[in-house]
């Protein structure tokens, strides 16, 4: 079993409120860094790692234990960019960097509205961003020195973030 310091490539978690650019950032970073992109939403849907459907929030109820079991071996190997809107259920040992994307509330509202978010689904996500719930969750779940908040309002922000993170991956060296 590979320990954190034995991985040849880092694991990065890209998290943030829906609509902050997680998937766009993670896929661009995976391509630029030659690492694997793991979209938890796709994984849950494709492998049935859920406990049904939540009609009010219009999403699957993720079975966190099944997700972690599914990813254990892949994460030990390293070289993964995981993208998900939550972060507190993943084992701390899995990640070398936790990136929290943040978007201005007006921009986020427009993005989510265009996706068809309405009612409580829209307001819950905007409130989540206003109160920086995911940044706080990341800081409580991981060492603060690996948590990085990045602005993700524009395409230029995303490009800049991908460039910064690609350089981070390039310079990364395992620690024991």
Automatic annotation (TrEMBL):
Its main location: cytoplasm. The keyword Transferase applies. It catalyses: ATP + H2O = ADP + phosphate + H(+); AMP + ATP = 2 ADP. InterPro entries: Adenyl_kinase_AK6 (IPR020618), P-loop_NTPase (IPR027417). It holds the Pfam family AAA_18. Residues 15-25 have a biased composition (Low complexity). The keyword DNA damage does not apply. Residues 39-62 are annotated as: NMPbind. Residues 114-124 are annotated as: LID. Residues 1-25 are annotated as: Disordered. It is found in: Cytoplasm; Nucleus. Keywords: ATP-binding, Cytoplasm, Kinase, Nucleotide-binding, Nucleus, Ribosome biogenesis, rRNA processing, Transferase. GO terms for cellular component: cytoplasm; nucleus. Broad-specificity nucleoside monophosphate (NMP) kinase that catalyzes the reversible transfer of the terminal phosphate group between nucleoside triphosphates and monophosphates. Has also ATPase activity. Involved in the late cytoplasmic maturation steps of the 40S ribosomal particles, specifically 18S rRNA maturation. While NMP activity is not required for ribosome maturation, ATPase activity is. Associates transiently with small ribosomal subunit protein uS11. ATP hydrolysis breaks the interaction with uS11. Interacts with small ribosomal subunit protein uS11. Not a structural component of 43S pre-ribosomes, but transiently interacts with them by binding to uS11. This is Adenylate kinase isoenzyme 6 homolog. It comes from Rhodamnia argentea. The gene is LOC115738328.
């Amino acid at each position: 079993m590979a320990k954190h310091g034995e991985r040849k490539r880092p694991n990065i978690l890209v998290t943030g409120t829906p609509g902050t650019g997680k998937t766009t950032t993670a896929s661009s970073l995976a391509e630029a860094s030659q690492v694997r992109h793991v979209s938890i939403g796709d994984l849950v849907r494709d492998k049935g790692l859920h406990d049904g459907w939540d009609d009010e929030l219009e999403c699957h109820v993720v079975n966190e234990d099944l997700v972690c079991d599914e990813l254990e071996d892949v994460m030990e190997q390293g070289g993964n960019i995981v993208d998900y809107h939550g972060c507190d259920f993943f084992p701390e040992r899995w990640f070398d960097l936790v990136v929290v994307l943040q978007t201005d509330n007006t921009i986020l509202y427009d993005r989510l509205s265009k996706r068809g978010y309405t009612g409580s689904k829209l307001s819950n996500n905007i409130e989540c961003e206003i109160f920086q719930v995911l940044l706080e969750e990341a800081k409580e779940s991981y060492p603060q020195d690996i948590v990085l908040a990045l602005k993700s309002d524009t395409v230029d922000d995303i490009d800049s973030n991908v460039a910064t993170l690609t350089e981070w991956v390039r310079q990364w060296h395992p620690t024991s």
